[in-house]
From TrEMBL:
Name of the protein in question: SAM-dependent MTase RsmB/NOP-type domain-containing protein
SUPFAM superfamilies tied to this protein: S-adenosyl-L-methionine-dependent methyltransferases
Source organism of the structure: Candidatus Protofrankia californiensis
Keywords: Methyltransferase, RNA-binding, S-adenosyl-L-methionine, Transferase
Keyword Chloroplast (UniProt): no
Family: Belongs to the class I-like SAM-binding methyltransferase superfamily. RsmB/NOP family.
GO biological process: RNA methylation
Top-rank lineage group of the source organism: Bacteria
Catalytic residues (positions): 29 (nucleophile)
Length: 91
């Protein structure tokens, strides 16, 4: 079973468990789209009751975060692992 399948299932479960108006942070240590952006866009497409927040707004002190709404950190740019962050609000 691919890891991305499990990641999708975990994110769906988290979105369904958070109260309306609540926010789920989806974070991985992977820069690979199959484990980051694709997981989030697939879940948002399947689950009509969520919106994507611009995660950059919650990290104002970090420069070079790109176009958003997701955050992808890089070792050579941010001094951290290749962390990915997406914020989903349940409607």
């Amino acid at each position: 079973m691919p890891l991305s399948f499990l990641q999708r299932e975990l994110l769906v479960a988290a979105v369904e468990l958070v109260r309306p108006g609540g926010v789920v942070a989806y974070v991985t240590c992977s820069p690979h789209p199959a484990e980051s952006t694709q997981v989030v866009t697939d879940v948002v497409g399947r689950h009509g009751g969520v919106s994507v927040l611009d995660a950059r707004a919650y990290l104002p002190e970090v420069e070079g975060l790109g176009d958003g709404p997701f955050v992808q950190l890089w070792p050579h740019r941010h001094g951290t692992d290749a962390m990915f962050l997406a914020l989903l609000r349940r409607l």
